[in-house]
């Protein structure tokens, strides 16, 4: 992803609910709903957030009790780890009481409801869906189910969860400054990868335990080669025939392998990869800095009408709304 190793630091403190809502929708999910249920006079939103390629790290608090709800995340996995207070979460039929000893984990599917007290300030970690799934796929050298059947929470006091939490806190603190070692792209990329791989090791998943029906077959090297070149240059005008040549098989064989091991054709996967890239870049850009068309073109879209329709179908809003940062 272009610019994926360069951290982007954004922060906001406001007593305006609409401004806080727009900020969170721009950085996280367009369908996010935030409603104060406590004393509105105590609403005091503050967020200090860093975007680094496929991860978004932030420290967030609201000052008063709020209720948050959101539909399926679709494009990401998400972890909320309270620093103070307790958070009540409902997701996929499971209730989790998260506090400084336990984080709550969200998969890309299923509605989310949160009761977030004013006393709760937390670390929010958003990881793009493909990044975490590729990490487990590479570590295990096998196909993983998408979305990953992750546990609903994990321990922050003992084991890998404690180390992961410390890593996230240190990385966020380092990235807030302009002159820290982690602000250098090469180091930032390594720390970013550590956050993703550390999460894969911290959260509960069934891989390695071989429960029936959860572990898929090995993903063929032909598929991996095609995925690697698409992620290396997502804006390049690939055709199925060109990807098949890279993979060393015929076009029909590659299409069949993708449908079996990825769940979609190579061109559908590439379009989703590009759309996610455009969405991430528009989310962190200012309207005066870039235009929708130039970002779309950079990611390989040449027909703006078809691009706009595909973008709205995936994210629920036109690309211009994402760029403006308003719901």
From TrEMBL:
Protein name as it appears in the record: Helix-turn-helix protein
InterPro entries on file: AraC-bd_2, AraC_XylS_family_regulators, Homeodomain-like_sf, HTH_AraC, HTH_AraC-typ_CS
Organism listed in the record: Actinoplanes teichomyceticus
PROSITE patterns associated with the record: HTH_ARAC_FAMILY_1, HTH_ARAC_FAMILY_2
Transmembrane segment boundaries: none
Domain (HTH araC/xylS-type) ranges: 224-325
Alphabetized UniProt keyword annotations: DNA-binding, Transcription, Transcription regulation
Keyword Nucleotide-binding: no
Keyword Transport: no
A Gene Ontology molecular function term of the record: DNA-binding transcription factor activity
Record-linked SUPFAM superfamilies: Homeodomain-like
